[in-house]
Design a protein that fits this description.
heterodimer, A: mainly alpha, B: about 250 residues, alpha/beta, 6-stranded mixed sheet, 4-stranded antiparallel sheet
C-alpha cells in the first residue's frame, strides 16, 4: 500500500516538474526570438520542413474528411431530417472552419512535424551536438527552438487554411455527385453560415496548436537521454503529449474565444 | 609562468556517486596538459565543468583570471569564443556540411565576407589534413576524419585555449600521431594552451608538457611525462604499464 502512495507521489512530482520545466522552456523560447544573431537560414529550412512538406498531408486528409462529412450529413441524417441536404454547404464548411480543419490538421502535423523535430533534436542531444552548440557560444534554445517555433506558428495556420478550402471542396463534390446539390447552392449555404469571426476563430486556434507542437517536440528532444532508445521515447512523448495538448487546449481556447465573441 | 586555468577545491557528484572529490589543478599559459585516468574516472566530467557544461557542487574554476561560474551570459559567451572544444565523438552538426560546421562560429560571430570565411575554412581544413572534404556530410566520414573536422571547428576562431576529449581514441596509430603533431603545432605556432583528456599513453609521452592522473575522484599524480614514467606510485605504474593486475580494479 505504502508503495502505491510512493509511486503516486513520485509520479505527481515528476508531472509537476515536467510542467514547470516546459513552461520555463516555452518562456525562454519566446524571450530568445528577439536575440541576435538571428539564423534566417535555419528559419527558411524549417518553413520548408514544417510548412511546404506538410501540405500534402493536410490537403489529402481534409479533402476526404470533407467528403465523409458530406456522406454522413447527406445520407443518414436525410432519413430523419428531410431537407437537411440543402444545408450541407453551411454545415460542412462551418465544421471545417471552426473545428475539423484546425484540430485534425494539427493532430496530423503533431505526428509528422512533432516526431521529426523531437527525433532530430533528441539525436543532437544524445550525440553531444547540443553541448557543442553551447561551447560555440550559441544558445541551443535560440538556435534550435526559436526557428522551429516561428516556422510552426507561421506555416501551420497556412496549411489549416488550405485544409479548410480543400475540405469544403471535398464536401461540395459529394453534395453534387450524391445529392445533386449544385455548386452555387452549396456555396450560398456555406456563405450564409460561415462569417469572418468563424474563420478567425479556426485559424487563430491553429497558431496556438502550432506553438504547442513545436514547443513540446523540441522540449522533449532536449530532455532525451540514453541513446537510440531515449530518442525513441522522446519522440513518442512529443507526439502523444502534443496531441493531448491540442485536444485539451482546444476546449479552453474555444471557450475563451466564445467569451470574446469569436 | 602564469596559470591560465586554475581548478580550486572542485567537487562533483551524481546522486550518491562522488566523481570529483575536492580536486585542485593548475594549467599554465601555453602548456599542453594531459589528464589521464581509466574510463569512468571523471576526466570528461572535469572537462565539462571547465567549459561550464556542468556546474560543480563545490569549488571554482578560474580561467584567464575569471571565475567561469560567476560570469553572466554575455561574459560567458565571450569566454567561449576564446576556447575551442573537441568532443570525444566529434559532435559535428550532422545537418550541416563539413564546410558549414567549420564556418559555424565565423558566420555567427565575425564580420568576415563569405570569401574570407571560405579562405579560413579551407585553411583550417588543410591544417587538419582534410582539404577537399568541405562539401562532405559528417555521416560520410570516418570517426578519425570527424574528429579532425571537430578540431578544425574548434580552432576556427583562433582560440586561446583548446579542450580535447580523447582526440586519438578510435583512430589508427598513424592518424593518432598526426593528431598529436597537430596539437603540438597549434601549441607552438599559435601559443594555444591545450588540455587533453586521454588514456593513450603513447600520445601522453609524445605530446604532454605535464600530466595529471585522476583516480577515485582525486589526482593521484601531477607532474611531467618523464616523472610519470619514473613514478613509483603503484596505481600510476599499473596504468602506465597497462597491466590488469595491481591496486586499480579494472571495472
Amino acid at each position: 500500500m505504502m508503495r502505491v502512495f510512493l509511486r503516486l507521489g513520485e509520479g505527481t512530482l515528476n508531472l509537476l516538474e515536467t510542467i514547470g520545466a516546459f513552461s520555463i522552456f516555452s518562456m525562454q523560447t519566446i524571450k530568445w526570438i528577439f536575440a541576435t544573431p538571428f539564423d534566417f537560414r535555419s528559419l527558411l529550412s524549417q518553413l520548408n520542413e514544417v510548412g511546404v512538406k506538410s501540405i500534402p498531408v493536410g490537403v489529402v486528409s481534409s479533402f476526404f474528411v470533407g467528403m465523409v462529412m458530406g456522406l454522413q450529413f447527406g445520407g443518414p441524417l436525410e432519413k430523419y431530417m428531410e431537407g437537411i441536404t440543402s444545408f450541407l454547404g453551411g454545415g460542412i464548411s462551418l465544421a471545417m472552419v471552426r473545428e475539423l480543419a484546425p484540430v485534425l490538421t494539427s493532430i496530423l502535423l503533431a505526428g509528422r512535424v512533432g516526431s521529426a523535430m523531437a527525433a532530430e533534436v533528441g539525436t543532437m542531444k544524445v550525440t553531444e551536438q547540443i553541448d557543442a552548440l553551447t561551447t560555440l557560444a550559441t544558445n541551443p534554445i535560440h538556435y534550435l527552438s526559436v526557428p522551429r517555433f516561428l516556422a510552426a506558428i507561421m506555416t501551420i495556420p497556412m496549411v489549416v487554411t488550405l485544409a479548410i478550402l480543400v475540405g469544403t471542396f471535398g464536401g461540395a463534390i459529394i453534395s453534387l455527385l450524391m445529392f445533386n446539390i449544385p455548386l452555387n447552392q452549396y456555396l450560398e449555404s456555406a456563405q450564409s453560415y460561415v462569417d469572418l469571426t468563424d474563420l478567425l476563430s479556426g485559424i487563430s486556434k491553429s497558431i496556438f496548436f502550432g506553438a504547442e507542437i513545436s514547443l513540446m517536440a523540441t522540449f522533449m528532444g532536449f530532455r532525451a537521454t540514453g541513446g537510440a532508445k531515449g530518442v525513441g521515447n522522446a519522440t513518442v512523448s512529443a507526439v502523444v503529449n502534443s496531441i493531448m495538448m491540442i485536444i485539451v487546449s482546444d476546449y479552453f481556447i474555444s471557450y475563451l474565444f466564445q467569451l470574446a465573441g469569436l | 609562468m602564469k596559470p591560465m586555468i586554475s581548478v580550486k577545491n572542485l567537487s562533483k557528484k551524481f546522486k550518491d556517486q562522488v566523481v570529483l572529490d575536492n580536486i585542485n589543478l593548475e594549467i599554465n599559459e601555453g602548456e599542453i596538459m594531459y589528464v589521464i585516468g581509466k574510463s569512468g574516472s571523471g576526466k570528461s566530467v572535469l572537462l565539462k565543468n571547465m567549459v561550464k557544461l556542468l556546474t560543480p557542487d563545490e569549488g571554482e574554476i578560474i580561467i584567464d583570471d575569471n571565475n567561469i561560474f560567476s560570469l553572466n551570459d554575455i561574459e560567458l559567451n565571450e569566454f567561449r569564443k576564446k576556447t575551442g572544444v573537441l568532443f570525444q565523438m566529434a559532435a559535428l552538426f550532422d545537418s550541416l556540411s563539413v564546410f558549414e560546421n567549420v564556418a559555424f562560429s565565423l558566420r555567427r560571430f565575425t564580420k568576415h565576407s563569405n570569401s574570407q570565411i571560405a579562405d579560413i575554412v579551407h585553411e583550417k581544413l588543410s591544417l587538419v589534413g582534410l582539404k577537399g572534404y568541405a562539401d562532405r556530410r559528417p555521416a560520410s566520414l570516418s570517426i578519425g576524419m570527424q574528429k579532425r573536422v571537430g578540431l578544425a571547428r574548434a580552432i576556427a576562431l583562433n582560440p586561446e585555449i583548446i579542450f580535447c576529449d580523447e582526440p586519438t581514441t578510435g583512430v589508427d596509430p598513424l592518424l593518432g600521431a598526426a593528431v598529436d603533431d597537430l596539437i603540438v603545432k597549434l601549441n607552438k605556432e599559435l601559443s594555444v594552451t591545450v588540455m587533453v583528456i586521454s588514456h593513450d599513453m603513447s600520445s601522453v609521452f609524445r605530446v604532454a608538457h605535464r600530466v595529471a592522473m585522476l583516480y577515485n575522484g582525486k589526482f593521484e599524480f601531477t607532474g611531467s611525462a618523464e616523472e610519470l614514467q619514473k613514478s613509483d606510485n603503484p596505481v600510476v605504474k599499473q596504468f602506465v604499464a597497462g597491466s590488469a593486475s595491481g591496486p586499480m580494479s579494472i571495472i
